[in-house]
Amino acid sequence: MNVQHILAQKGRKIEIASPDLPIAQAILHLASKRIGALIVMDCAGALAGIISERDIVRALVAGAHALEDRVRDHMTELVVTCTPDTSVSDVMDLMTRGRFRHVPVIDGGELVGLVSIGDIVKHRLAEIESEKSAIIAYIAAG
Ligand code: AMP
To answer: What order of strands is seen across the sheet that includes strand 16-17?
Structure first.
């Protein structure tokens, strides 16, 4: 199974932030969409970074004044991405080794989706359930 199977189920909607967006606005965006990260795109539409709730928590440790900082001040610029053809197990490996929970999906230089650890867990659970049903059917058939 690969990433395109996950995107086919969850859709390709991506929540985007500008590097100049104030952190306070980024928090509102994350909360209203009930998500954990925003992809940061520059004014030319190029991937500029990713900002997650962890970056924001770290920023706020310095004080509430961080709410007035910009997304660019706290985002991660070097973003690890995958393609629709990347296998689900390779994405799990990227997340485990990189210690992050979000991976943007790039196809032909274009951002086409985002896979989160929640999507991966959901996909794996469905896979395990279907394997279990197949084994039970096989045993029952005797
Ligand atoms: P997360 O676990 O996704 O909330 O992110 C933990 C940290 O990794 C934060 O500093 C994020 O900015 C960063 N991060 C999240 N996703 C990626 C990614 N795909 N590539 C590089 N860094 C990332």
So the answer is: 16-17, 37-41, 47-52
Binding-site residues, ligand 1, Cβ < 6 A: 36-37, 50-55, 76, 79-80, 98, 100-103
Q: What is the CATH number of the domain that holds 107?
A: 3.10.580.10
CA-36 nearest atom, ligand 1? 4
Q: Give the Å distance between the CA of 126 and the centre of ligand 1.
A: 25
Name which residue sits closest to atom 2 of ligand 1, judged by CA: 100
Taking CA atoms only, the protein residue closest to ligand 1 atom 4 is: 52
Question: In the predicted model, is pLDDT for residue 39 greater than 90?
Answer: yes
Cα dihedral 91, 19, 53, 63 in deg (nearest 10): 150
Predicted TM-score of the model (pTM): 0.91
Per-residue pLDDT of 73-122, as tens digits, reads 999 999 999 999 999 999 999 999 999 999 999 999 999 999 999 999 99
* Mean pLDDT of the residues in the chain: 95
Domain count, the chain: 1
